[in-house]
Design brief:
20 helices; elongated; about 475 residues; about 45% helix; alpha/beta; five-stranded parallel beta sheet
């Protein structure tokens, strides 16, 4: 005789099959539905009461719960409330022979994924299951992430592969170059590599090479002696010395000025730095991790980046996928951000209605995880109910495309647009444009080079007109 699917409770769940916990006090219904789900390729766990279901959830977490509404003892809604309190991202489908429209509305408003009335069509059930699993951010095992990458919230296979590579390279002192779009989490990955490395007990220092003017960036990196320049009223060690024995993260390395690239290369080759205004070299013991959103191969071809520095930094390269290519992480990230925001503002945690979560999963996310956080914060702040509706998500996605950039990115964008307007106004005359910008020609040329702007193109633009 075929054993009921509840014997699967003693089996190890695998990642190849999405696991579903089925709860019903009617053994015949339990067997019928579990056979249908098993035939569709799912790994099915069963429980004959709400108490049994909670006991199973304490051992291993499925991807979805399907429960009957009317059961002896704990009913389906009470079970949902217990699940929702502990695992808000775990979707729950409720089945009942006694369903009414008010029941369905009340259940979905409280966060239940869907509400199906018996007798239900098998195709409808499987469609609901497929949709719930698509929007589920849970994991099969419920295992906590390893401490070294606990800050990186993911269940994406692509991200897991990046983390596996990061763990391998972390054990060495090889320089790492991280490629990824703005907002994709490059600094978090750099921190994870540091925490997985033998240098984990040392400092982790980070600097955005695009956010600091060239003359200040040199001092920030290498330090300066007292009196080295106007305003240097005390000696400054610099980040290389501050990161001694640890890791230095150079973000947006592709935006570093050429002159400073040469000094950085020398520091890496000699394993020592000379503070600005000093005649003495200071030995350094620092692991370098750098990152960029630029195509450095193109920057090398255009002369904006030194190839020798590129090869020095790019011993191992890691590429972070954009959020649009790891959509399975969106529900998980949403739950993570909601929990953070609830703690920050001392407010009850919110959940997202199923159609609201579907909008989030299907959005384009040009600003990646940073943009998702902004949308979540806006919707949670404006929500007046425990469940965030789809209308608030639509509003947040419409507002300025929700691409909330950092001050550094906004400053860079303004500078680029300002230079373009100057060159158009002067028809590519650098002398005139520099005068209007109140900058000398040398400094103005450096600005143009930083933004890859060629004055001759604006002269050609006039000729075409």
């Amino acid at each position: 005789r075929t054993q009921p699917a509840r014997t699967a409770t003693t089996e190890k769940m695998t990642e190849s099959k999405a696991s579903i916990l089925l709860v019903d006090d009617d053994r015949d219904i339990l067997k019928l539905v579990s056979l249908r789900l098993s035939a569709a390729g799912y790994s099915v766990l069963t429980a004959e009461s709400g108490a049994q279901a909670l006991a199973q959830l304490a051992v291993a977490r499925p991807r979805l719960v399907i429960t009957d509404l009317r059961m002896e003892g704990m009913d389906g809604m009470a079970l949902f409330e217990r699940i929702h309190g502990a695992m808000p991202t775990l979707p729950v489908i409720i089945l009942t022979a006694h369903g009414t429209i008010p029941d369905a509305v009340a259940a979905t408003q409280r966060g239940v994924f869907s509400f199906l009335t018996k007798p239900f069509d098998g195709k409808d059930l499987l469609a609901q299951v497929e949709q719930a699993l698509k929007l589920s951010g849970g994991t099969d095992t419920g295992a906590a992430p390893e401490a070294w990458h606990a800050a990186i919230v993911t269940r994406s296979q692509r991200m897991e592969e990046v983390l596996r590579q990061a763990k391998l390279v972390a054990g060495s002192d090889a320089s790492v170059l991280i490629f990824g779009d703005s907002g994709s989490g490059k600094e978090l990955l750099a921190q994870a590599i540091h925490l997985a490395s033998p240098r984990a007990k040392g400092p982790f220092m980070a600097v955005n090479c695009a956010a600091i003017p060239e003359h200040l960036l040199e001092s920030e990196l290498f330090g300066h002696a007292k009196g080295a320049f106007s305003g240097a009223i005390y000696a400054h060690r610099g980040l290389f010395q501050a990161a001694q024995g640890g890791t230095l993260f150079l973000d947006e390395i592709g935006d570093m000025p050429l002159a400073l690239q040469a000094k950085l290369l020398r520091a890496l080759q000699d394993r020592s730095v000379r503070p600005v205004g000093s005649t003495e070299m200071v030995p350094i013991n620092v692991r370098i991790i750098s990152a960029t959103h630029r195509d450095l191969s193109e920057s090398i071809r255009s002369g904006a980046f030194r190839p020798d520095l590129y090869y020095r930094l790019n011993v191992v390269s890691l590429a972070l996928p954009p959020l649009s290519e790891r959509r399975e992480d969106i529900p998980l990230l949403c739950a993570h951000f909601v929990e953070q925001l609830a703690a920050r503002y001392s407010k009850p945690a919110r959940t997202f209605a199923p159609d609201a979560m579907e909008l989030l999963v299907n959005a384009s996310w040009p600003g990646n995880v940073r943009q998702l956080l902004n949308v979540i914060e806006q919707t949670v702040a404006l929500s007046t109910s425990p469940v965030v509706p789809a209308s608030l998500v639509q509003q947040a996605l419409r507002d300025d495309n929700t691409v909330m950039v950092s001050l550094d990115e906004a400053r860079r964008a303004f500078e680029h647009d300002y230079l373009v307007r100057l060159l158009r106004a002067t028809e590519g005359n650098v002398t005139q444009a520099a005068r209007m910008a109140q900058r000398n020609r040398t400094e103005f040329y450096k600005l143009l080079q930083r933004h890859n702007l060629t004055p001759a193109l604006f002269k050609a633009e006039k000729e075409k007109a």
